[in-house]
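Dear support,

I submitted the protein below through the web form. The confirmation email said the job was done, but the results page showed an empty box. After a refresh the structure appeared. I'm attaching both so you can tell me whether what I see now is the final result or a partial one.
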Amino acid sequence: MNPAVIYDKNTLEFVTVTLEFCTLIETASQHTLYSFTDKAVKITPLLYLKAALLPDMEEPEEEDEPEHFITEDTYEAIRYRIANLLGEYDPFLETFHPDIRYSDTPIASTISENLADVYQDLGDFAALFRRENEEVMEQALYICRESFRACWGQKLLNALKALHAVRFNEELSSGEDGFLAGGEIE
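What the results page shows now:
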């Protein structure tokens, strides 16, 4: 076990941004389209940066897989709330899907599914890190870091690209707040 890794400055900053991201995702239904996309286009690149800066570490010796906290029901509720908020702006064409090179047609994806996928990994990570058991924290960090590299990092970037298109859509713009009066689309 290497406790220096879990108390590293970059790890603690990653944990902080992870908690902010999870809070945004969990409270999506309390936001307007404008406030959600505005916050999401700010937090997602920061989350990506903080994950990319996580320290290198060896795989922990723990053999048991850690507990999962984000259930399928929680995942679906999160995905649904974001999809409901984004409405017609949720779907986008996927450009980095592994099957794209074998396809003659575009592959559709949704912001809500990509963000829910990221949330699933980060929600489990945050819950394990809160346990304050250094062995569990190290294992959770390792799993999260490896999952970032293999999976959720790309999903986060895909969602960011689509969120950017919504947030800075000139057709939606009107006035100082960036969207139609009241922050909602009429």
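Response: this is the final, complete result; the empty box was a page-load delay. The helical segments are 3-6, 9-26, 33-52, 72-86, 111-129, 134-167.
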